[in-house]
Amino acid sequence: MIPLLLALIGCSSVNTLYGARTLEPGQTSTTLALSAGKNTDPLAGTTAGIAPLPVYPQADIGRRFGIAPDLDVGGRLSIGGLGFDVRYRFLHTEQVHLAAAPGVYGSYAPLQYIPDALIPIDVTAGLAEARFPLLMDLDISKGWTLGAGTQVIGRQFWMRVRSGDSDGTGSRFELRTGGHVRTEFRFRRSSLSASFDVLADPLRNAPLAWSGGIQMTFYTDPWRREERRDLRQWQRVPTATPGKQP
User: Which is nearest to 99 in space by CA: 69, 119, 129, 123?
Assistant: First the structure.
């Protein structure tokens, strides 16, 4: 039970939410995502062996802001974690988009487990990640895009276990490399996409981590805010009274 509990604490959201297409300046987007997957076992390569990890569900809420041509920033809130990234599209042709989206992600989880012996076991664990994905989108048609990408994640994992008079701590560095494939259907102010990610841990003898999910994104019109402002200014302009000189 303890290896399984520690393994579940280390689960971070690795589902790819976005492609390489950046937002227009002033545009915003909100993404709702559901996914399921298996994470790399944090106990792999130790004397505890490999825990029998189950498939776990995950949910994300993402928010992005277009700040300049080919540049936007965004954040994601997942179950037990929070992330931030900057996306820059460095190549844009009629059909192909290429972008880099470096970012950070963190997770923290305090849990308590009471075994049959009724001695509480407090487990606290957290992780900090630096993520470096490269994204590619290929526009098949006006509203359909296929995407793929690679990703490198540097991850520092730590945990503390306390039970009675016993108190133990440990930490380790993990390196993940892998990629994803995705498809996206775009509408006027929304899009529906699905993605599948696979990540390996070359520093340890650990199984592959994977995640598959669907995402629904809603976009704002980048010009609607300026249009509303101009309308308010026009409504405040005084009009000339009939029979009088303006």
Answer: 69
